[in-house]
Design goal:
Chain A: Pfam families: DMT_YdcZ (PF04657). The complex is a heterodimer of chains A (140) and B (162). Chain A has 4 helices and no strands. Chain A has 140 residues and is mainly alpha-helical. In chain A, 55% of the residues are buried. Chain B folds into 2 domains: 51 residues; 65 residues, no CATH class. The chains are: A mainly alpha (140), B mainly alpha (162). At the A-B interface, helix 1, helix 2, helix 3 and helix 4 of A face helix 1, helix 2, helix 3 and helix 4 of B.
């Protein structure tokens, strides 16, 4: 269990590391070029890994609906925007606002499609996130 | 530390970051659909592949010659190109941990903790050539509110009653 906790913590650190590296690359190139390299090099890395492990294309893969292919293009915009923002508002603001936006939109999505949701916790969470955003904006 | 407090961030930049979290929700949903058909490795591989093609198209559409201002930007160090490896490794770790007793909620909560610790250190010391930002008490309060709010949603809000 300690191993898996370490895995999950490391995953969070790697998200930050990735954004930091892409942000640095964007300074020398552009956010969109940084996003291109992020995807292209990640693709090469995953292709090699998949060939070694031999489980890249499982039988169900071909039944993936076409619209699920759009995750990549959305990711290009996401990585480019993060690479642009991190040099302007810093790593902490970028990380927390992205997470906050993910949480609030996730709650909205679940509400919209009638997924199970504990309303008091979700609502209070949204309020706290918005309060945190307001606090970064308050004049010193 | 002699560096001044971080400047007031532009509210439009903060809104853009918040909005990009919505893109992340969309990505998780779309990539999750691909993963339910072909597994986590296929899903990440597919997203990186279609993303590469999309980036080339975006670049081709938006391409324009940089005006010759005489300003030359420093070349990026080679390690700056490794963000994609770090991102791909993330998927391997999280697709493992969601299938342990940690489940999705534990994976998200611990990932949030990892991101907060890393980004605090990154701003404090200006990791990898990005600007240093010294955070004040108000920033610390904002971080605390957003962390607690996100943890409430992850641990007690979404899917907890399922």
């Amino acid at each position: 269990m300690t191993l898996f906790i370490t895995y999950a913590l490391t995953a969070g650190i790697l998200v930050g590391l990735s954004r930091q590296l892409n942000g640095r690359l964007a300074l020398s190139t552009s956010p969109l070029i940084a996003s291109f390299f992020n995807h292209a090099i990640g693709f090469v890395f995953l292709t090699i890994l998949g060939l070694i492990l031999g489980n890249l294309l499982l039988p169900g893969a071909s039944s993936t609906p076409w619209w699920a292919y759009l995750g990549g293009p959305v990711g290009v915009i996401f990585v480019a925007s993060g690479s642009w923002l991190i040099a302007r508002i810093g790593a902490v603001n970028t990380a927390l606002l992205v997470i906050g936006g993910q949480m609030v939109s996730g709650v909205a999505l679940d509400l919209a499609r009638g997924a199970p949701l504990t309303l008091w916790a979700s609502a209070l969470g949204v309020v706290l996130i918005l309060a945190g955003m307001a606090l970064t904006q308050k004049r010193r | 530390m002699s560096s001044p407090d971080a400047p007031q961030p532009n509210p439009l930049h903060l809104l853009a970051a918040f909005g990009s979290g919505g893109l992340l929700t969309m990505m998780v949903f779309l990539n999750g659909e691909a993963g339910s058909h072909g597994g986590a490795l296929f899903s990440s591989w597919l997203a990186h592949g279609t993303g590469t093609v999309a980036a080339i198209i975006f670049l081709a559409v938006l391409w324009r010659r940089r005006p010759a201002t005489g300003e030359t930007r420093a070349k990026a160090p080679l390690w700056a190109y490794l963000g994609g490896v770090s991102g791909a490794a993330t998927v391997m770790l999280t697709s493992t941990t969601v299938n342990t007793p940690l489940a999705l909620a534990g994976t998200l909560a611990l990932g949030l903790a990892g991101q907060v610790v890393f980004s605090l250190a990154a701003d404090q010391w200006g990791f990898f050539g990005l600007p240093k930002r010294r955070l004040g008490l108000r920033d610390a309060g904002a971080v605390a509110l957003m962390v607690v709010g996100s943890l409430l949603i992850i641990l007690f809000g979404v899917g907890a009653s399922a």
